[in-house]
Amino acid sequence: MRSTNYTLTAAKLNAARGQEKPYKLTDGGGLFVRVSSAGTRTWCYGYTAPTGKRGEVTFGQFPEVGIKAARELHFAARQQLAAGVDPAAAKKAEREEKKRAAATDEGLFMAFSEKWLNEQLGDAAPAYQRKQRSLLERFVWPSIGRKALIDVRPHDVLEIMQTLSKIPVTAEKVRALIKQIFDHAILTLRVETGANPAAALRGAIKVPPSKHHRHLNETELGAFWRAVAGQVDGAAHPSTIAAARIIALTLCRKLEALRAEWTEFDLDKAVWTIPAERTKMRKPHRVFLSRQAVAVLDAQYALTGAGRWVFTTSSKLAVPTSPATMTFFFKRLEGVPSDFTPHGLRGTGATILLERKHRRDVVDLLLAHTEGGVSAAYFHHELEDERREALQFYADLIDTVAASEKVSVLKPRRPQAA
Questions:
Q1: If we measure between CA atoms, which residue out of 29, 131, 19, 103 comes closest to residue 70?
Q2: From the CA atom positions of the chain, what is the Rg in Å?
Q3: How confident is the model over 221-230, as pLDDT tens digits?
Q4: pLDDT score recorded for residue 312
Q5: Which phi and psi angles does 28 have, rounded to 5°?
Q6: d(Cα 250, Cα 244) in Å, to the nearest integer?
Q7: pLDDT tens, residue by residue, 207-225
């Protein structure tokens, strides 16, 4: 089989625009791209079938199907022709076979997405699994659950999104979820490359900018700390107060603190190890406790040490403090911004530590953020000494700003890293 001198480039395809009438961009060996009036670019292969008649088979749209993938499909079709097989007829037969599989539920969207949930999200946090299943159950399965994967079209996904236009964030989450499922369907050869009906619909529903959690400056942090102290003799339970302080002093997530168990702590070594199943990144996270955090936990042990949970408002120590209790506690703190939440303590600590010239990689480790790409492969150090120093610096700063209405100016710990 002769090699083909292909001519199309990514630059030429990206520059192609729709005209009054459809036109072709020739690549070579019968492979070309048909550009529709709307600007859609579809890979096509025109050939002479074994019967002597002209035939044509499509390979999907650019850029979903890239140049390399299209040429590989073109080569495979040429091999079929050399073997006396009509590529278009073979593609039709394959599609019919997939439809027959769909008729036995194997290729239905609902069955496939159910399998995807179990296999691909099996190690995800249970709360995340429930959220993804809920999106499918409420918005997706009623619409396309009984459709074959290969029969789901962009307009089907768009209709789902349009019903959610008044809640655009959810609409985009649904689109992204459908895209993930079809990406996996493509990887497992259930549908053709480039046949992801949700891929091209990003931006179909305008999503408002995300709102970041409110964080406090140093003056507000001092007011917050005094407000928490003011609850000691008030209506708040001691466990709720202690949990708020630990969230602030460790920069952990709210649920990581509220579900903490005494077996996770080594107070002699001032270390708290949060197990992987309770962290967002599904990796164990070690927190190097400041003297102030250890003091809070020592006092809390006298209150709840006989039970499993560190923070519990139950007289029998039977259940941990609920997230709703913590949220309500923040709402009633006098002098604290009404839109401030427990999660805002993470942003507060991170911002202040960065402003005080602590290194970003240290702060990222304190927050249990993970590196991506090459950095993730080589960055295994915990930087324990620097993390201990950073949290101790922060705890001391909290004491300082809480002791006075005016914030004392502390000198930066070290020069900003380059």
A1: 29
A2: 29
A3: 999 999 999 8
A4: 94
A5: 140, 150
A6: 10
A7: 876 556 688 999 999 999 9
Residues 6 or more apart whose CB falls under 8 angstroms from that of 152 comprise 109, 144, 182, 197
Helix and strand totals (H; E) in the chain = 17, 7
**Cα gap 291→399, rounded to integer Å:** 12
Residue 142: Cβ within 10 Å count: 12
Q: Which residues pair with 104 in a beta bridge?
A: none
Q: Which CATH superfamily is domain 10-103 in?
A: Integrase, DNA-binding domain (3.30.160.390)
Q: What CATH number has the domain spanning 109-201?
A: 1.10.150.130
For the beta carbon of residue 186, count every other beta carbon within 10 angstroms: 17
Q: Which amino acid is at 273?
A: T
DSSP code at position 138 = I
Between CA 109 and CA 198 the distance in angstroms is: 13
User: Where along the chain do its domains lie?
Assistant: 10-103, 109-201, 218-403
Q: How many CA atoms lie within 13 A of 361 on its CB side?
A: 13
Angstrom CA distances, 99 to 94, 152, 196, stand at: 9, 12, 17
Q: Do domains 10-103 and 109-201 have the same CATH topology?
A: no
Domain 218-403 sits in CATH 1.10.443.10: yes
Give 145-166 pLDDT, tens digit per residue: 989 888 899 999 999 999 999 8
Reported confidence tier of residue 418, pLDDT bands at 50, 70, 90: very low
Q: Cβ contacts of residue 130 below 8 Å, gap of 6+?
A: none
What is 379-402 written as a DSSP string? -----HHHHHHHHHHHHHHHHHHH
- For 91, the 3-state DSSP assignment is helix
